[in-house]
Amino acid sequence: MALVVPVSAVDSARVASLNRAYVYLLGGIAALGGVLFGFDMVIISGTVPFFTQAFALSGWQTGWAVGCINLGAALGALVGGKLSDTLGRKKLLMGCALLFALTGAGTGWAGSFAAFVAFRILSGVAVGAAALVCPMYVAEISPAPLRGRLVSFYQLSIVSGILLAYLSNYLLLNSGPDNWRWMFSSQAVPALLFFGGLFLVAESPRWLIGKQRPAEAERLLTRIGGSEYAQAEAAQIEASFAHLTTESVGSLFSRELWPVVFIGVVVAVFSQAVGQNSLFSYAPVLFQQAGMGRDSAFLQSIIIGVINFVFTFIAIGTIDRIGRKRLLQAGAALLCLDALALAAAFYWRLPGAWVLGFVLAFIAIYAATLGPVTWVALSEIFPNRIRGNAMALATLALWVTNFFTTTSFPVLKDSLGLPFTFGLHAVLCLVYFLFVRARIPETKGKSLEEIERELTGA
Questions:
Q1: pTM of structure
Q2: Which domains does the chain have, with CATH numbers?
């Protein structure tokens, strides 16, 4: 049996010898898959008034048009885990990038509502698979002292995609009667850039060792941290696979593994249920309802994107110092208060400036806490031998939740009103705060294998 050398025992000299530039290159390119996620989820926010008119849609149909991408993403999550274990992380991401580019143009120039929905669902397949594999890959190539920051780059990539989508919508707003078609088509640009960048990345060392290709894994690990680091990491990874008997989905529900898998699923669900989807997907609609003009509402949406981008750097700078659990707790508590403030603003019909302030505060809190920490936590807590299937299940739960929140928002808004809708989000934030406090462990500064031993007792 291979000798296991805990990463926590690595001295400061070895940590200092890490090839940070190379690690940041690998992690940064892989994290760009988040641009696909953010861009595609938000690009529709600027198109809603136009395609609903073009296809003469009802409220239910509008919710379906916005939310159907999440069903495709759920399917992508289901197949993505197995495909990432079979094909490798890199090849799957390249396929996702190409599919994303094709479906953007297909959605934009769809001749019927049925074709529009079909392309949106296919686009979701690409986004769902990429959302599963990107943070998993980044975690697997990252040394423990850098992992929180590097996986947070994935969330930075998501918010960059959101900002680019808002900016694209604003620039194309007055481009003519086909403006919404060009808005959707613009997503091909980041997709093709991501595809090209993937030629520069290496395969995951943990995937390589799992496929009995240790020499390739050690070469990569040596380039990341030198020969001593490579030997220690390879020994830990091999030990984590030593008792591997199956990677079936059924093993996720075993007495040993289900408590860890359950935590991951809950983290994924609440990351989408607290209310940010209502703001990202329907921002111009909300601002117009608060009394702002159309052009002004689109411009305010760009401000949302900027705030989201800027405050993500707070998480990147603090996650490896403050820790995952404390950031999740603080985020859930503050989001609960802000959702209550939004409910009050709509109930008492406060001026649009108040609504804008509370919306920006909500986005800032989410960007600095739950947004990035969710992906870090999901990429860390699952054992090596089930990581693909466990990430698939958690990401499936994430997309199903996203579907229900984005699809139900127009209905809740029209039937029960915005005060009730944001009051419901406040309750969900409170429930999440209590769950984090009681069940989620702290994982900062620990190797993936150390976390596995701690959570499973293996």
A1: 0.73
A2: 18-201+243-456 (1.20.1250.20)
